[in-house]
Amino acid sequence: MMKPQPATRQIFSLASLVTASALVLGAFTATLASPAAAQTAAPASKVTRLIVPYAAGGPIDVTARLMAEGVKDTLGTVIIENRPGAGGNIGVDAVAKAAPDGLTVGIAAVATHAINPWLFSKMPYNAATDFAPITQMVRVPNVLVMNADTARRLNINTLADLISYARANPAKLNYASGGNGSAGHLAGEMFKARAGIFALHIPYNGGNPAQLALLSGQVDFNFDNLATASANIKAGKLKALAVTTTQRSATLPGVPALAETLKGFEIDTWWGLVAPAGTPSDVVAKLNQAFVAALNSPEVKARFALLLAEPVASTPEQFGAFMKSERAKYEKVVKASGARVD
Asked: Which residue in 42, 51, 89, 207 has the most C-beta neighbors within 10 A?
């Protein structure tokens, strides 16, 4: 019998997308068509660093490499520098402390720029002031899934059924996550609070063990990213009750959005691009134009689709406002959950 592991930190359940990422990496050998842009190609001597605060091979790393290839004709050579550790804080801090000359950009993710500021007692950077937003890159839906056998046994066919059962049977349900403070944990706590129910949180040492616990029936439900859960949903091993985006997913059009039952409920996995604070506005504008053109190219959209990830191009102002709203949302969720990393 699988036993819960000690509560440990996992920033993204999305980090378990290595299988889906491999599909993208396999396709990556094909040359991307260069997105059209007004700028003149950057001089060969100018090399831009794109710092990824997570390990190589995961979905964030894959999409970063796609971006590096997609902007080479407008920005010149872009090299990927993986700086994992401390829940993404090490790599993001390197971006914050880099020269604001437009030659260093980095990934800003839901963990590093919305969750970690409230989860860690000490932060090496200020997520609100140490960065110049460039553009959002990706949004990936999460999905509330139950073990299919458990759902049949308890006669739970809809989200309303789950909520009704939980209210009538206090403390009889539990849910898994990849660790305290993970996206799955916080989604579960938000769901409990909004639905007025209680379910015991069982943290595992990563997203994969949490999913295995669900598949084996050791836990009743969890919030997983759609790309990881989709194969088991299609195989009938997991029952999808709701997606956590405000609207339904094209991948699972028959599955309602959780917001249809709990108005305003939204908790997605996302990431984007930032530069160090103080980067000149014209330089930020040039970076935005190059990366947005790549995001809108058919080649990038096709490769992102393999991850069930939606490209999201935005202005620097839009991405900055979005990250600010996400920080405000997660401040409440993290504090309510009691999760801390010291």
From this structure: 207
Kindly report the number of other CB atoms within 10 A of residue 314's CB atom.
19
How far is 276 from 213, CA to CA, in rounded Å?
41
pLDDT number for residue 7: 35
Give the architecture (CATH level 2) of 31-140+268-337.
3-Layer(aba) Sandwich (3.40)
Instruction: In whole angstroms, give the CA distance from residue 78 to residue 67.
Output: 9
Distance from chain centroid for Cα 80: 19
Predicted confidence at residue 104, as pLDDT, reads 98
Q: Give the position of tokens 């014209």.
A: 282
* Residue pLDDT, tens place only, 247-280: 888 888 899 999 999 998 988 889 999 999 999 9
What secondary structure does DSSP assign to 268-287, as a single string?
Answer: -EEEEEEEETT--HHHHHHH
Q: Within 10 A of 278 (CB to CB), how many other CB atoms are there?
A: 11
What is the third-level CATH fold of 142-260?
Answer: D-Maltodextrin-Binding Protein; domain 2 (3.40.190)
Residue type, 31: T
Where do we find the tokens 């709701």? Answer: 242
**Angle formed by the axes of helices 207-215 and 226-234, to 10°?**
20
Tokens of 262: 């709990």
Reported as a single tens digit per residue, the pLDDT across 171-227 is 899 999 988 888 899 999 999 999 999 999 999 988 889 999 999 999 999 999 888
Interaxial angle between packed helices 281-295 and 316-337, expressed in degrees from 0 to 180 and rounded to the nearest 10: 80
The two beta strands, 104-109 and 47-52, are parallel
pTM of the model: 0.80
Residue 45: band (very low, low, confident or very high) from pLDDT cuts 50, 70, 90: low
Q: Residue 297 and residue 287: Cα distance in Å, rounded? A: 16
